[in-house]
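QA checklist item 7 of 12: single-chain prediction sanity check.
[x] sequence parsed
[x] length recorded as 263
[x] structure emitted
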Amino acid sequence: MSEIFDAPLLNELQRDNTDPLARPIVVRNAPEQIVERLVTAVALGVYVPGQALPPERELASLLGVSRATVREALRRMTESGFIEQRRGRNGGSFVLENWRPSSADLIRRHLLPNWDRFEALFDARQLLEPVIAATAALRRNDDDVAALSQALEDYHAATDREESRVADERVHRAIAESTHNSVLVGLSAQIRTRISLDLGAEPYTPEIRRVAAEQHGLLADAVIAQDPERASTIALEHFGLTEKLVRDLVARVQELATLETDE
């Protein structure tokens, strides 16, 4: 159902560039901004030690910058010990550590200036996703049930982080598409993109995976059973998982800043 993103109203909404989190990185030192964002992503678990970052071309597309800008950011991260460059067929930029002495400062510089927008995103998600879940429960048809059931099966069958992430996106896409409202589907996807720092995947930890697996099943059951109240309640709880990770990270870097000031 990729055509759902071509709805005129959704295209109109996407023309609104008032959200700084949605803008290309152009305001100040672009490579440094990319470093700050990637270091934040690593600290949140979007990427983990041993994992390759997306290729330069993909990062450039996700962040709206040139490949040369991405290359310079990766060079700085290599020099700082966050990643290492590997050559050859299976080469790329691989995460070495999820936390370095400079992490707290870089994360503060990325998250805190935009914190009002993050708060707005959290609020919008907590308002929107329960409505989407409830609407899906009311409007789902047999095809929607089949798609949701398959997405849920794929999620439980996932064997690694990447498979889990892809399957997670399919579960939420299937629920949103069950509303049969292209604007709701698009808005849900847009918020997901912003909360993932425009890097294509939400933060992920083993504990998040365990809790999400249980909540996905409960949410799917509520939608399939056409129980909008239960679907709404589960969605409200489920979409707080990523928010908690981000809030916990902000609390950590602020605490470290206080300790540094007291020394």
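[x] summary fact logged: Residues 1-15 have pLDDT under 50 and may be disordered.
[ ] second reviewer sign-off
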